[in-house]
Amino acid sequence: MKENFREFLDRLRDLKELVDIRQPVDIRHIATLVDQSDKALFFHDVIGYEVPVVSGIIRTRERSIMGLGCTQYGEIEQKLRRGIDHPIAPRYVETARHKQVIRVGDDVDLFKLPIPMSSIYDGGPMITAGVVIAKDPEYGLNSGIYRFMVKEKNLTGIDIVTPNNMRLFAQRAYEAGQPCPISISIGTHPIEIMGAGFRAPIGVDEMAIAGGLRGQPVELAQCETIDLPCIADAEIVLEGEILPTGWTNPEGRFGEFTRLMGGLHWNPVVRIKAITLREDAIYYALHMPWENTWLAAPTRYAAIRAALKNAGVQVKDINVTLGGCAFWHAVVSIKKQAGEGKNALLAALSVMDLKHVVVVDEDIDVNNAMDVEWAIATRVQADRDVFIIPGARAKPLDPSLPVMPPGVVPVGAKVGIDATIPEGVPHERFERIAYAYADRARIADYVGGKADAATGRVSVDDKKVAALAGSILSLIEKAPLYYTEIAERFGEHPFPVVARALGKLHADEKLWQDPRGRLCVRGSAFAARPPVKSA
Known about the structure:
Elements: H1 5-14, E1 18-21, H2 30-36, E2 40-43, E3 53-55, H3 61-67, H4 74-85, E4 91-93, E5 101-104, E6 126-127, E7 131-136, E8 140-145, E9 148-152, E10 155-157, H5 165-175, E11 180-186, H6 190-197, H7 206-214, E12 219-222, E13 229-231, E14 236-242, E15 249-251, E16 265-267, E17 269-277, E18 283-285, H8 290-310, E19 314-320, E20 330-335, H9 340-349, E21 359-360, H10 369-379, H11 382-385, E22 386-393, E23 411-419, H12 443-447, H13 462-478, H14 483-489, H15 495-507, E24 511-513, E25 519-521
Parallel strand pairs: 1-2, 3-18, 4-12, 21-23
Antiparallel strand pairs: 2-3, 5-17, 6-9, 7-8, 7-11, 9-10, 10-17, 11-14, 12-13, 14-17, 15-16, 19-20, 22-23, 24-25
């Protein structure tokens, strides 16, 4: 499959799966508009920025099928299996279109990129669709998808709380007192995103798996300031280093694949050394949670099928359910022989993050099977919440029970799961993702021609940025506020100016976050305190 990122966008447009929004749009409205849309959205005129934004390109089952060059969803698993079994090593090229513009040193300015806010509770704008490539002296190359919360014009965090190969690379560099170089390729084809998102064993090059998915090598180019490759077809590439400071900076909160807001994380920071981009670059914002889900589920299908094959179980079909967020719940049908039900269960539970409904809280729609399953996935621990009641009166029509003589009431087992919010757990851990400005930014209006008020090119005046930073500091001295709340309070200022003002406060070491992820004054009574030991 030779298709590149732009050709995929053109194909979506031709199939009426992508809508072009050509009127001016406030960047603060992008995430909520994508959330409302059943199509991918291309924002050509983002107020205050020269680079357009595309989002939602793999946010539905249909578009994920298109992105992998398949005709039905089940083919994605088969294609991934072939890519894993028959990887094709990347091919290095001398030139890449994303090097038409090269910014290094003082010219590195992340605030010039249209990085949208997403959820109301986000800690700041986050890069979400970057294919990250890192290298370890012993284990070689690793690729993955990680989030980077923008802090300053050349400084971000990197969300690597979960144990994985990228975290191991960063940990090993940290222990050696060395930075860990990384390249971040933004605006890549879904095939490279899926390859990078597959959790391969250490030492396995995920871009070779992506090559197997493509049926031809992924083209890589050498970075300008670090000894690493990046994806040659990318729209934008960031070159950076994870600094050897340890897991000591507050990061988040983040909207997670669970459809819940995650908590505050402690992460390292990344210094961006260079930005390379096309002259007409397109910024791709991967929209959580569904743009993550549709390509994540097939990786579970492939792993479950392999585990069951190793257990000697014949698989009829697998359903990694959406109610379990495509990560935690699997329904497996097998061609059964004696005892294989238990063997299949043990084999399936050995795979990745698979967990496992049903008493639920009032916020759960009991008539919505997906909603009920979601409650189980996010609120249950089996040793505490799963109860098996043997010897209970059963219904004769239950086909799993022995055939009983007429008139004899059978007995069987009943299972109860308490899927309510556990006592003692802060309720903010269950705050659902809610997109900012949903009361005023509606996709139907924009498709019908609505335009946000534009003031032309936003000029950045250092004195105005400093004055605004002072006003923000005075406000958060009284009480912590979410990033979005600050942007709203100072809505008379263009968002790029607000972002720079917050960036200045961070650079001046005056900005911090409280345990809920709200911005506060560093060293204040509200400020979150780091763990005693870094990771």
